[in-house]
Amino acid sequence: MSRPIIAILRGIPTEQAAEAASVILEAGITTIEVPMNSPDPIGAIKAMVDAHGQQALIGAGTVLSKAQADAVADVGGKLIVSPNTNPDVIAHTVALGLQSWPGAFTPTECFAALEAGATGLKLFPGNMAGIGGLKAIRAILPQGTKVYAVGGAGPDNFAEWIAASADGFGIGSGIYKPGMSTDTIAKNAAAIVTAYDEVINDL
């Protein structure tokens, strides 16, 4: 069973990337991004795609340009996540056949992203928009729009975010921080999945 959770591995070393992806997949998370402001994001993405590209949706975060999207596509990445709404990057990503999840904070950004072809929206920063912000934006979004909360969302408030209509989550430091062992990543990912499943099972 897959969960609507994106594991954000900011700073993951290339040599650890494949084994980190392996334990995250074993925990039940099948979507992974490596932010482009990591030391070697394309190398880490390639390592994960080569090892797990058939089992996972793997790509990059903090993507700010069409050239960066091209670089991800060139190594087999299928996911582009951005902190901002850039219609040119979104349209280019979609033209490449990749999923596009741009960061959006306001109704204007949400609609600009959707008009450019975004797969879904990354509500970012989630802790600034807040649960009330998501509820307000949801009222005017087209039916079926997927919204993932990123920043400030986690096991302590999964239930509140889901009740406010969040479709999924991006989890960074709750799963990985630079220097973590693969065993710790495995434990963190398992804990996130357990917390998410408990909330879903209580619905």
UniProtKB/TrEMBL annotation:
GO molecular function per UniProt: 2-dehydro-3-deoxy-6-phosphogalactonate aldolase activity
Keyword Lyase: yes
InterPro entries, per database record: Aldlse_KDPG_KHG, Aldolase_TIM
Name listed for the protein in its UniProt record: 2-dehydro-3-deoxy-6-phosphogalactonate aldolase
Family: Belongs to the KHG/KDPG aldolase family.
Lineage of source species: Bacteria, Pseudomonadati, Pseudomonadota, Alphaproteobacteria, Rhodobacterales
Assembly, per entry: Homotrimer.
CDD domains the record matches: KDPG_aldolase (cd00452)
Keywords: Carbohydrate metabolism, Lyase
Keyword flag Cell inner membrane: no
